Each structure stands twice: as C-alpha cells, then as structure tokens.
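Sequence in, structure out. First:
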Amino acid sequence: MTQRVALVTGAMGGIGTAICQQLSAAGIKVVAAHHSNFDRASEWLKEQEAAGFKDYVCVAGDVGDQASCAAMIAEAEAQVGQIDILVNNAGITRDRLFSKMERDQWDAVINTNLNSMFNMCKPVVGKMAERGWGRIINISSVNGVKGQAGQANYSAAKAGEIGFTKALAQELAAKGVTVNAICPGYIATKMVMAIREDILKGIIDTVPMKRLGKPEEIGALVAYLSSDLAGFMTGATLNINGGLYFQ
C-alpha cells in the first residue's frame, strides 16, 4: 500500500511535535506546517533528526489566510502527493477578560483558531471524498467544552471547531472520510512547564488525576484516529484532560 501522508498545522509546538512523531512512528509521511514568521524551523528539523525522525517535509504559511493555506497545501502535494490526513492543530491565545478585550484580540483568535478550519479543509476534503478515504482531526480544547474566564475568544473558537467537526462529519460519513475533534486539557509542553511553580501547582491541583497530560498522549490519540482501525468513529469529541471536565 502507498504510504499515507499527513499534514499537521502548528507542527513545531509541543503538541504538534508529539503528533508528528507519533504519526511518523505509525509509518505515515509527515508534512510539518508552520507559520511563515516562525524562525526556528531549521533548528526544529535538526532536533527531530537527532531524535530519529529524519524524513519530515516542511511547508510554511498562515492558517488564517485562505490563499496562503491553498498555496501551502499545493506545495505539500507537489512534494509528497495527496494529503490523506489533515490535523488542524495550529492555534493562538489572546487572553483577557471580555470587558477589557479589544476587537483585534477577538479577531486574531477567531481567525487563526476557527477560520483556519475552512481554510485548511476546503482544498483537501473534496479530493479525500473522491478517493473514498480520509481523516480530518481537529485539535480543540477542554475550554471549548466548558468555557474559561478570560478566554471568551478562545473558548468560542474552540467550541466552533467542535460544531464544525460534527457538521462536516455528517457530510463526509458516506464518503469514507472521518472527522473528529480532540479536546486536550492541561498538557506538559515547554510553554506550560515554564509557568511559575506555584501557579503550575495550582493548575495541577484542579486536575483529578493530579498531573499534566503528556504531549505524546495527544499524539497517540491522533495516530489512532488516523488509522484504518478508527474508520467507524466520526463526529466524535474526545476529551483527554485527566478528569478535569466530563462532557
């Protein structure tokens, strides 16, 4: 069988890196997509090679811009062929209480986190449906299901991702294309681990399992959803948050 190809947005962050590694370990060709302004791509590739992951293809663009997404996907297809698996992982935060939130903070998060669903999926889902196989995996958030003070923009976007997932799953179910959403809780990425120790302890205390999630736990779930064995699961919202919130 021809090797399947996965395109992962936000590939060079903590969760994105784990997703790329788990997909690669499952025998899937990985296209690592990053923002055009990200200046550590070469360094990241060297780190991955040192860890044993040597065959990533990189593309750059802006998931909030439709034309940039189309160009990014076209570049990926020119290099490695059809995109079989799309992991929409890129996201940003602009946290602020709503009473003080500026419109540009709202727009930035909605554009990157939610409008990107349209921008990235539009060029690939029709081709997946024509081939009769495809996987769309959207990385939402626990705060998309429970909400979070100071994150009206982020919670709205992540909740929108879940609604988008359910609707698109219904449209594509008969075409052999599955669409699922993952809602991580607090994950031990480098960014989270850099939080001041007392604040981090307070966060962990809210989690019933009394620990942070591991990035590779998210990556492993993505790898499963990308597999043939996950072919009967679509439209699902999968919580992976240590018991922090039950939907």
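Second:
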Amino acid sequence: MMRTDRQCGFVSFSGIDGAGKSTQIEALRVRLERSGLRVRVMTFWDDVACFTSLRETSGHRLFGGDRGVGRPEAPINRRDKNVRSRAMTLVRLCLYSADALSLRRQVRKARASGVEFLICDRYAYDELVNLGLRNPLVRIYVRLILRLVPRPDVRYLLDADPIQARARKPEYPLDFLYNCRESYLTLSELGARFAIIPPLSVPEVSREVWQRLSTGSAEREASAIGLLKTT
C-alpha cells in the first residue's frame, strides 16, 4: 500500500532475535529514500520503551545474565525475556502498558513531524510475545493493547528457523526461540495479523517486503499460520 498523497506511511518489523530485521529495515529505508520520501526509523527500545536504564540494570542483577549482543564466536547467556514467572508477568503487564501509551505518543509525534514514511524496528508485538498467550486473562490484556496502539499499514513478521537465527545471534536458549516463534504466530491469530515473510535469502526477503508494501497483501497470511506452526 504505497502512498501517493502526503499521508505518512507506517510499517513495523517483528521477529525472533536473529531473523534479519535490521538488514531488511535498512534495505527498505534506502529504497524509500531513493524514491524521494522522508523516512524515519523508530527503534522500540531507544525511542519508545519506558524506564530502559532501570529495566536493563535490574534485569542483569536479578537474573545474572550477560550484557550485550551475542556473536557466533562468543555467545552470551541472556536471562530476561525467557523468564515467565507470575511475578515477572505482573511486572511486564505494568511496563508494557506504559510502553503502549508511549508508543501512541511517539507515533503521533512522528506523523506530525513531516515524516512521509515511518519504519518501526520492533513494536508492541515484540513485547506481547513474552507473555503466556495461552492464559485467557493474558489474551484479554493482549487484545486491549492491540486496540490501544496505532496499527501499522503493514506488520511484517520475519519468520526464521530458530537454529539458524541463534547461529547468527546467540543470545537466548534454543527452546526459548522456538517458543517465541510460536508466540508470534499465536499473536497474529489474536489480532496482530502479520504479513509473514518465510525464511528466504536476504535478497528474496527484500523482494517480499517490497511486494507486500506495494500490494497491501498482508491479510492473506492468516491462512498460512496453521501450516507455519507445523514446520
């Protein structure tokens, strides 16, 4: 759904760690700017999330996980998103509510700033998958947040094989990545309705991203979720 008027285009990229989001965001940004559009990339952790310093410090102290980003030759052991105790769920519900309100403000400000295209590097969706989506009460909360946050024109989910993703970015245990992938697919069913890009080469994913943006074909992905869950 490419824009021909002055209204701000708006997309988000989600996916497990190592799915290739940064690569595809940069490729889309360059292509849009070459088309003459004023583009802004908004990163969720830097521009939206509340209490980031407190969250990073307390997460490290509570769970004893490593800091930074893992590399294949020097993997690290993160222990934050993969903790799903009841107490942590309550903390997340409070934090994610604050983040959702912040996200509304930041998207509104970006749209009013004269930007012609907004690309979100992660979105509220990437927090919601950290919750236990099988819990009926959590599902009610998730649907409320999905209604609260602005809905991007296209909501990309870069699907990835967890083994290959962890080889590129070894931060979290493999079983966590499998569970996280499943949660993204469940979240799509709950209302996110992602445009799901299957695991492909980098150029092929770039072509798929551009095609979905040009044709607005995100809704056709809903029928593919059942198949993806079995792979």
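Remark: Strands lie at 9-14, 39-43, 117-121, 154-158, 195-197.
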